[in-house]
UniProtKB/TrEMBL annotation:
Lineage of origin: Bacteria, Bacillati, Bacillota, Bacilli, Bacillales
PROSITE patterns according to UniProt: B12_BINDING (PS51332)
Organism: Fictibacillus phosphorivorans
Protein name listed in UniProt: Cobalamin-binding protein
UniProt xrefs under Gene3D superfamilies: Cobalamin-binding domain (3.40.50.280), Methionine synthase domain (1.10.1240.10)
InterPro entries per the UniProt record, alphabetical: Cbl-bd_cap, Cobalamin-bd, Cobalamin-bd_sf, Meth_synthase_dom
Domain B12-binding residues, every copy: 85-212
Record GO terms (molecular function): cobalamin binding; metal ion binding
Length: 214
């Protein structure tokens, strides 16, 4: 049994303490490594079990709750409110309840020194727009995992990209590896297929900012 399978089993058992202990015992505590090699494959396994009717909706919800608990305990948002930080906000489209992926991305931005706001599941566009207008983030991350929400994605990207401060719109979620989302993003957003691409984008963004001030 792989380490990711062991973690998935702990999530499904609802074992908060053991799941947290299991992660803390991993030899590599790098946030990116844990997300890529353990959390993401574990939750994908659980998603596959649910899709194949091998576990119930209640089982899937229990596992999600345990995963959320472990993520929150391990990676708390930085208390540093420096005004020099770049800002990024993250949310799921209205009707989207699968929020763990976007929560991990939020955590990676926080680790890189960004000030972040995480809005979780199912945030209506009107509230996303209101928050973005007030806070003026440089980046807005969106998560989509349901096929029938693709037209909704198009509306979110178009509206958020048109904000006065012109934020970069990042689009992630399970659909990014299964479907061509370009028609829904229409060159107004950046499709992010996995956590490695998030890290690459962050590094390139930082490099561009450094070069701009030289």
């Amino acid at each position: 049994m792989s380490e990711a399978e062991k973690l998935a089993r702990l999530f499904l058992e609802g074992n908060h303490a053991e799941a947290l202990r299991f992660i803390k015992q991993q030899p590599d505590q790098n946030r990116m490594v844990l997300f890529r090699d353990l959390f993401t494959p574990a939750m994908y396994m659980i998603g596959d079990l649910w899709e194949n009717n091998e576990i119930s909706v209640a089982d899937e919800h229990l596992a999600t709750g345990v995963c959320d608990f472990v993520l929150s305990r391990l990676f708390q948002v930085s208390a540093d409110e420096s005004t020099h930080k770049k800002k990024a906000m993250f949310l799921c489209l209205q009707g989207e309840q699968h929020y763990l992926g976007i929560k991990m991305i939020n955590s990676l931005f926080d680790e890189k020194g960004w000030e972040t706001k995480y809005y979780g599941a199912s945030l209506p566009l009107e509230y996303a727009l209101k928050s973005a207008l007030q806070w003026k983030p440089e980046v807005i991350g969106l998560s989509v995992s349901i096929v029938y929400n693709l037209p909704v994605l198009k509306n979110y990207v178009r509206a958020l990209a048109a904000l006065p401060n012109k934020p970069d719109i990042l689009v992630g979620g399970r659909l990014t590896e299964k479907y061509d989302l370009e028609p829904y993003v229409n060159k107004q957003g950046i499709i992010i297929k996995n956590l490695k691409q998030v890290e690459k984008w962050l590094d390139e963004y930082t490099e561009e900012r450094i070069n701009a001030y030289k």
